[in-house]
Amino acid sequence: MIDLLLYLAGIAVVLIGIALSIGLHEIGHLVPAKIFGVRVNQYMVGFGPTVKSWKKGDTEYGIKAIPLGGYILMTGMYPPESKPYRGPFSTWIKEARQQVREGISEADEDRQFYKLSAPRKLTIMLGGPLMNLLLGVLLILVALSGIGTMQSTLTVNKVYQCVEADANGACPSGAPESPALLAGMLPGDTVSMANGQPVISWTEVVAQLNKNLTSSSTLTVIRDGSERELTLSPAFIETQVFLDSGGLALDAAGNPITELRPILGIQLASKMTPMSIQDSFQFSLTATGGMLAFVADLPAQVYKVAQSTFGVADRDPNGAVSILGVGQLAGELTAADISVSAKLASLLLLIGSLNLALFVFNLLPLLPLDGGHVAGALYESGKRRITKLVSGSDPGPIDTAKALPLAYAVWMLLILTGVILILADIINPIQLG
Predict the structure, then answer these.
(1) Where are the beta strands (DSSP E) in 215-294?
(2) Closest among 249, 393, 273 to 341, alpha carbons compared
(3) Burial class of residue 153 in the structure, from the number of CB atoms within 10 Å of its CB (0-12 exposed, 13-18 middle, 19+ buried)
């Protein structure tokens, strides 16, 4: 029962975190819009029926039933039609323009979004993604530098009977005793030196043990306040090398890089260790770069997820997930047998990573995403500058309403992607461990 409550608490924390992230994203649009004098009719967090709303000034603020999105509604997103448009989807475009321009009074004439300069449009549209970037970096800094990550200490937590022991500590019949057991190592021993050299991390211990691949090594441990020297001969196995980003390290030919690692047959105690601000910030930059690569590969990711859903391939644990999958991962984190501080840091990292994903995804130059409006503002600025140089006249703002068919197509694609990912997270969910 307690595990179930913890699982549900994790889901609730992430949903609240997502709702707050969306709310702050929209504030990133709202504040510069109001500074530049644009009338903002609505600020809403969520979609669907309105749960609660209130009016302040020109703006209606509200919360909707489904907290998985949000929007602000600015006056004059589309300019009035300069000449009749008879191209494809002309009826849709006409109806959308009428809906957006409905209720615009003379007092709002100079408070319309389409009349802003390109730099001001860019500031408004980039405000949302930049808010997610700042929030993502801040949450990662709090998680890694404020709370820390689980790091192995130099203290032995458990000594296994053999190196092939399973998760429960059971050994196969006839398996040789572990090097640590043969050396007389005990739980609670703290390693202070390896081969006579002082060490402050297990990485340094491994480096010293790797110097004696064919002979014994010595470990000095502190036990009951006194030092003891133990002689042992580790078992060495070849393991793959991983990058800080989590990916496999490859050589020039594209083959995985391997290294020998000493196996003693012990489990080290862990503790939460805060990282430096510099390392945490570097981690956030690396994570943002990883999100860029992930979003660029998203179509392939969705295709792989679809294959795994119908049993054609295995589910990639590092692949794309829906909001349902994120909630499942959060639930597993809070129900896991780890410390409260480790759970909190993991949830903050998860929400921070989601904000970095929102930052990158919203910059895609496709309507109705923020990046589509950014691309439109840049195109408008370039067109007006070039036309003025060539003909001396200003062609005026571009008619973004004509791009609505593209926006509808992108919406349908996003909905289809969401359905595929949700089905995958129901039929073949990713599980931690």
Answers:
(1) 217-223, 226-232, 235-240, 258-263, 266-273
(2) 273
(3) middle
Please identify which of the residues 26, 81, 109, 204 carries the catalytic annotation: 26
Quote the CA–CA distance of 353 and 7 in Å, as a whole number: 20
CA–CA separation, 212 and 233 (whole Å): 9
CA 333 to chain centre: 15
User: Can you spell out the DSSP letters for 228-239?
Assistant: EEEEE--EEEEE
Tokens of 142: 């709090």
User: Would you state the torsion angle of the CA atoms of residues 142, 146, 151, 155, taken in this order, to the nearest 10 degrees?
Assistant: -160
Whole-structure pTM value: 0.82
> Across-strand partners of 272?
150
Residue 149 neighbours by CB distance under 10 Å? 19
Q: Is 238 a catalytic residue?
A: no
Residue stretches of the chain with pLDDT short of 50: none
Residue 397 identity (one-letter amino acid) = P
The letter for the amino acid at 130 is L
CB 253 within 8 A of CB 269: no
As given in the structure block, the two tokens for residue 320 are 């794309």
Helix%, strand%, coil% for the chain, nearest 5: 50, 20, 30
Q: Report the run of H or E that residue 371 belongs to, with start and end.
A: helix 370-391
pLDDT for 187-235, tens place per residue?
Answer: 999 999 999 999 999 889 999 999 988 889 999 999 999 999 999 999 8
- Give the residue from 21, 19, 17, 39 showing the smallest Cα distance to 30: 39
Cβ 376 vs Cβ 40: under 8 Å? no
Q: Which pair of structure tokens corresponds to residue 191?
A: 């390693």
Task: List, in sequence order, every residue forming a beta bridge with 66; answer none if it has no partner.
Answer: 47
CB-based burial, 296-317: b 16+ in 10 Å, e otherwise:
eeeeebbebbbebbeeeeebee
At 281, phi and psi to the nearest 5? -65, -40
Mention every residue, 6+ apart, whose C-beta is less than 8 A from residue 341.
147, 148, 272
Neighbouring residues of 81: CB distance < 8 A, sequence distance ≥ 6: 94, 97, 399, 401
